[in-house]
Write a structure and sequence with these properties.
The protein has 133 residues and is mainly β. It has a single domain, classed as Hotdog Thioesterase (Thiol Ester Dehydrase, Chain A, Roll). The protein is built from one helix and five strands. Strands 1-3-4-5-2 form a five-stranded antiparallel β-sheet, with helices on one face. It is elongated.
């Protein structure tokens, strides 16, 4: 059971550019993976007192390609909070350039982050609403 529901607004939205393409003319998977990581880290900030680092990204399977001109939205929400870690689900949806307005789910991923301090030591996650400023 998710701690949070899928948000209505994405953590980030990106327009896919020609510089993001692979040799097949579609968007390089590494670009999508990087943006999944960014969106997940944004969602994780609610629980991290200072910063988070990525521990792992669990099984990412691409269901549909992404093309130049697509607008890609990354929806991110918390599914689990541990003592020093937080697990984020990220759903990736592409709004097609052609035909305009068609939306397809490209992939989703589960990303685990650990909260660390200035010395890169693990620190406890905070619980929003519990004595937080």
């Amino acid at each position: 059971m998710a701690l949070e529901q899928r948000p209505q607004e994405p953590a980030i939205r990106m327009a896919m550019m020609p510089s993001d393409t692979n040799v097949h003319g579609t968007i390089f998977g590494g670009v999508i993976l990087s943006q999944i990581d960014q969106a997940g880290a944004i969602a994780a900030r609610t629980y991290a007192p200072e910063r988070v680092v990525t521990v792992c990204m669990r099984e990412v399977e691409f269901h549909k390609p992404v093309y130049v001109g697509d607008i890609v939205s990354y929806y991110a929400w918390v599914t689990e909070v541990g003592n020093t870690s937080v697990t984020i689900r990220v759903e990736v949806v592409a709004e097609r350039f052609r035909p305009t307005g068609v939306k397809v789910t490209v992939t989703d991923a589960e990303v685990v982050y650990v909260s660390v301090d200035d010395h890169w030591e693990k620190v406890p996650m905070r619980r929003p609403g519990n004595n937080d400023a």
